[in-house]
Amino acid sequence: MLTERLGLKPGHAVFFGAGEFDEVSKIMGAVRVEAARRSGHFEENVFRFCWIVDFPMYEKDPETGRIDFSHNPFSMPQGGLEALRTQDPLDVLGWQYDIVCNGVELSSGAIRNHQPDIMFQAFEIAGYDRETVEREFSGMLRAFQYGAPPHGGIAPGVDRIVMLLADEPNIRETIAFPLNQNAQDLLMGAPAEVEEARLKELHIGLYKGPAKPTPYKPTK
Fold it and tell me: CA 159 → CA 90, 155, 181, 189, distances in Å?
Protein backbone atom coordinates (compact mmCIF):
# COMPACT_ATOMS: atom_id res chain seq x y z
CA MET A 1 0.00 0.00 0.00
CA LEU A 2 1.01 3.61 -0.53
CA THR A 3 1.05 4.38 3.18
CA GLU A 4 3.46 1.52 3.83
CA ARG A 5 5.62 2.23 0.80
CA LEU A 6 6.12 5.87 1.83
CA GLY A 7 6.08 5.25 5.57
CA LEU A 8 3.16 7.62 6.07
CA LYS A 9 1.90 8.41 9.55
CA PRO A 10 -0.92 10.60 10.93
CA GLY A 11 -0.19 14.21 10.03
CA HIS A 12 1.69 13.39 6.80
CA ALA A 13 0.52 14.60 3.40
CA VAL A 14 1.28 13.42 -0.13
CA PHE A 15 1.02 15.67 -3.19
CA PHE A 16 0.74 14.44 -6.78
CA GLY A 17 1.51 16.36 -9.96
CA ALA A 18 0.78 15.28 -13.53
CA GLY A 19 1.70 16.91 -16.82
CA GLU A 20 4.80 18.16 -18.62
CA PHE A 21 7.94 17.76 -16.52
CA ASP A 22 9.06 21.42 -16.53
CA GLU A 23 5.58 22.74 -15.76
CA VAL A 24 4.93 20.23 -12.99
CA SER A 25 8.36 20.84 -11.45
CA LYS A 26 7.69 24.59 -11.24
CA ILE A 27 4.26 24.12 -9.68
CA MET A 28 5.29 21.42 -7.21
CA GLY A 29 8.36 23.44 -6.23
CA ALA A 30 6.07 26.26 -5.11
CA VAL A 31 3.87 23.74 -3.26
CA ARG A 32 6.90 22.34 -1.46
CA VAL A 33 8.03 25.80 -0.32
CA GLU A 34 4.57 26.76 0.90
CA ALA A 35 4.13 23.43 2.69
CA ALA A 36 7.48 23.92 4.42
CA ARG A 37 6.48 27.42 5.54
CA ARG A 38 3.13 26.28 6.98
CA SER A 39 4.62 23.27 8.75
CA GLY A 40 7.47 25.23 10.34
CA HIS A 41 10.23 23.48 8.38
CA PHE A 42 11.29 26.54 6.38
CA GLU A 43 14.54 28.16 7.53
CA GLU A 44 14.19 31.88 8.03
CA ASN A 45 16.92 34.54 8.09
CA VAL A 46 19.60 32.31 6.55
CA PHE A 47 21.43 32.22 3.23
CA ARG A 48 21.86 28.79 1.64
CA PHE A 49 24.00 28.59 -1.49
CA CYS A 50 23.96 25.90 -4.15
CA TRP A 51 25.94 25.37 -7.36
CA ILE A 52 23.91 24.07 -10.32
CA VAL A 53 26.12 22.20 -12.83
CA ASP A 54 25.90 19.64 -15.65
CA PHE A 55 23.31 21.51 -17.70
CA PRO A 56 22.04 19.57 -20.72
CA MET A 57 23.51 21.01 -23.91
CA TYR A 58 20.36 20.36 -25.93
CA GLU A 59 16.64 19.88 -25.46
CA LYS A 60 13.80 18.69 -27.67
CA ASP A 61 10.98 21.05 -28.58
CA PRO A 62 7.81 19.27 -27.34
CA GLU A 63 5.75 20.60 -30.25
CA THR A 64 8.09 20.18 -33.22
CA GLY A 65 10.43 17.49 -31.88
CA ARG A 66 13.36 19.60 -33.06
CA ILE A 67 16.67 19.48 -31.19
CA ASP A 68 17.78 22.92 -30.01
CA PHE A 69 20.17 24.46 -27.50
CA SER A 70 18.79 24.39 -23.98
CA HIS A 71 20.79 27.23 -22.47
CA ASN A 72 24.04 28.71 -23.80
CA PRO A 73 24.93 27.68 -27.37
CA PHE A 74 28.46 29.07 -27.04
CA SER A 75 29.52 26.99 -24.06
CA MET A 76 31.93 24.07 -24.36
CA PRO A 77 30.24 20.65 -24.42
CA GLN A 78 31.60 18.17 -21.92
CA GLY A 79 33.61 15.63 -23.91
CA GLY A 80 34.27 18.08 -26.72
CA LEU A 81 33.96 17.05 -30.35
CA GLU A 82 33.90 13.32 -29.57
CA ALA A 83 30.83 13.69 -27.37
CA LEU A 84 29.00 15.63 -30.08
CA ARG A 85 29.78 12.96 -32.68
CA THR A 86 29.15 9.83 -30.63
CA GLN A 87 26.52 10.63 -27.98
CA ASP A 88 22.79 11.18 -28.21
CA PRO A 89 22.41 15.02 -28.29
CA LEU A 90 20.05 14.88 -25.31
CA ASP A 91 22.79 13.14 -23.27
CA VAL A 92 25.47 15.76 -23.98
CA LEU A 93 26.19 18.04 -21.05
CA GLY A 94 27.62 21.55 -21.21
CA TRP A 95 30.30 23.17 -19.08
CA GLN A 96 27.73 25.58 -17.63
CA TYR A 97 27.09 26.57 -14.03
CA ASP A 98 24.78 28.73 -11.95
CA ILE A 99 25.03 29.74 -8.31
CA VAL A 100 21.74 29.95 -6.44
CA CYS A 101 20.94 31.36 -3.01
CA ASN A 102 17.64 30.60 -1.32
CA GLY A 103 16.20 29.57 -4.66
CA VAL A 104 17.26 32.80 -6.42
CA GLU A 105 19.76 32.60 -9.28
CA LEU A 106 22.57 35.04 -8.45
CA SER A 107 25.02 34.32 -11.22
CA SER A 108 25.32 32.30 -14.40
CA GLY A 109 28.44 31.32 -16.29
CA ALA A 110 30.13 28.81 -18.56
CA ILE A 111 33.37 27.64 -20.10
CA ARG A 112 33.43 29.15 -23.58
CA ASN A 113 33.61 27.01 -26.69
CA HIS A 114 36.77 28.42 -28.29
CA GLN A 115 37.34 25.89 -31.10
CA PRO A 116 35.69 26.49 -34.51
CA ASP A 117 35.36 22.77 -35.38
CA ILE A 118 33.46 22.10 -32.16
CA MET A 119 31.26 25.14 -32.74
CA PHE A 120 30.34 24.03 -36.26
CA GLN A 121 29.43 20.55 -35.00
CA ALA A 122 27.44 21.89 -32.03
CA PHE A 123 25.37 24.18 -34.25
CA GLU A 124 24.89 21.48 -36.90
CA ILE A 125 23.15 19.28 -34.32
CA ALA A 126 20.77 22.17 -33.63
CA GLY A 127 19.97 22.52 -37.35
CA TYR A 128 22.36 25.31 -38.39
CA ASP A 129 24.50 24.65 -41.47
CA ARG A 130 28.10 25.81 -41.78
CA GLU A 131 27.19 28.73 -44.04
CA THR A 132 24.71 30.11 -41.51
CA VAL A 133 27.20 29.87 -38.66
CA GLU A 134 29.91 31.60 -40.68
CA ARG A 135 27.50 34.39 -41.63
CA GLU A 136 25.99 34.96 -38.18
CA PHE A 137 29.14 34.57 -36.08
CA SER A 138 31.91 35.51 -38.48
CA GLY A 139 33.66 37.84 -36.04
CA MET A 140 33.82 35.22 -33.32
CA LEU A 141 35.03 32.50 -35.68
CA ARG A 142 37.71 34.79 -37.11
CA ALA A 143 39.01 35.53 -33.62
CA PHE A 144 39.10 31.83 -32.74
CA GLN A 145 41.08 31.02 -35.90
CA TYR A 146 43.90 33.20 -34.62
CA GLY A 147 44.05 30.99 -31.55
CA ALA A 148 42.02 31.59 -28.40
CA PRO A 149 42.97 30.02 -25.07
CA PRO A 150 40.42 28.08 -23.02
CA HIS A 151 38.42 30.61 -21.08
CA GLY A 152 35.21 31.04 -19.13
CA GLY A 153 33.52 33.34 -16.71
CA ILE A 154 30.54 34.17 -14.58
CA ALA A 155 28.39 37.29 -14.26
CA PRO A 156 26.98 38.14 -10.82
CA GLY A 157 23.59 39.79 -10.58
CA VAL A 158 24.22 42.55 -8.06
CA ASP A 159 20.56 43.61 -8.07
CA ARG A 160 19.51 40.08 -7.07
CA ILE A 161 22.08 39.98 -4.28
CA VAL A 162 20.78 43.31 -2.94
CA MET A 163 17.22 41.95 -3.16
CA LEU A 164 18.15 39.09 -0.82
CA LEU A 165 20.11 41.28 1.57
CA ALA A 166 17.25 43.80 1.74
CA ASP A 167 14.68 40.99 2.10
CA GLU A 168 12.68 42.37 -0.82
CA PRO A 169 10.27 39.94 -2.53
CA ASN A 170 10.38 41.81 -5.86
CA ILE A 171 13.59 42.54 -7.78
CA ARG A 172 12.05 45.73 -9.19
CA GLU A 173 12.57 47.28 -5.75
CA THR A 174 16.36 46.93 -6.07
CA ILE A 175 16.85 47.92 -9.72
CA ALA A 176 17.95 51.52 -10.32
CA PHE A 177 15.66 52.03 -13.31
CA PRO A 178 12.93 49.35 -13.19
CA LEU A 179 10.59 48.85 -16.13
CA ASN A 180 6.82 48.78 -15.81
CA GLN A 181 4.54 46.08 -17.19
CA ASN A 182 4.82 47.64 -20.67
CA ALA A 183 8.66 47.49 -20.62
CA GLN A 184 8.86 51.27 -20.21
CA ASP A 185 11.35 53.19 -18.07
CA LEU A 186 9.17 56.02 -16.76
CA LEU A 187 12.08 57.86 -15.12
CA MET A 188 14.26 57.96 -18.23
CA GLY A 189 11.33 58.21 -20.65
CA ALA A 190 12.40 55.15 -22.59
CA PRO A 191 11.76 53.87 -25.14
CA ALA A 192 11.46 57.08 -27.13
CA GLU A 193 11.60 58.14 -30.77
CA VAL A 194 15.09 58.33 -32.25
CA GLU A 195 16.23 61.35 -34.21
CA GLU A 196 17.18 60.88 -37.85
CA ALA A 197 20.72 62.06 -37.11
CA ARG A 198 21.24 59.28 -34.56
CA LEU A 199 20.00 56.66 -37.05
CA LYS A 200 22.45 57.89 -39.67
CA GLU A 201 25.32 57.62 -37.21
CA LEU A 202 24.53 53.92 -36.78
CA HIS A 203 23.72 53.31 -40.45
CA ILE A 204 20.15 52.27 -39.60
CA GLY A 205 17.32 52.73 -42.07
CA LEU A 206 13.61 52.63 -41.16
CA TYR A 207 10.74 51.51 -43.34
CA LYS A 208 7.03 50.94 -42.93
CA GLY A 209 4.79 48.36 -44.52
CA PRO A 210 5.55 45.12 -46.34
CA ALA A 211 7.79 46.73 -48.97
CA LYS A 212 11.40 45.64 -49.14
CA PRO A 213 13.62 47.95 -47.04
CA THR A 214 16.14 50.18 -48.74
CA PRO A 215 19.65 49.81 -47.26
CA TYR A 216 21.01 52.95 -45.69
CA LYS A 217 23.63 54.67 -47.84
CA PRO A 218 25.76 57.31 -46.11
CA THR A 219 26.07 60.60 -47.97
CA LYS A 220 29.46 62.04 -48.76
Answer: 34, 12, 19, 21
- CA–CA gap between residue 66 and residue 62 (Å, rounded): 8
Alpha helices in the chain, H assignment, sequence order = 2-6, 21-39, 80-86, 116-125, 130-136, 138-145, 158-165, 196-201
Cα–Cα distance measured from residue 162 to residue 102, given in angstroms and rounded to the nearest whole number? 13
3-class DSSP assignment, residue 116: helix
Exposure string for 93-121, b = 16+ CB within 10 A, e = fewer: bbbbbbbebeeeebbbbbbbbbbbebbbb
pLDDT digits (tens, 9 = 90+) for 110-124: 999 999 999 999 999
Report how far residue 71's alpha carbon sits from residue 59's, in angstroms, rounded to the nearest whole number.
Answer: 9
Sheet containing 104-111: which strands, arranged edge to edge? 49-56, 93-101, 104-111, 152-156
Strands 67-69 and 58-60: antiparallel
Residue 207 has pLDDT above 80, yes or no: no
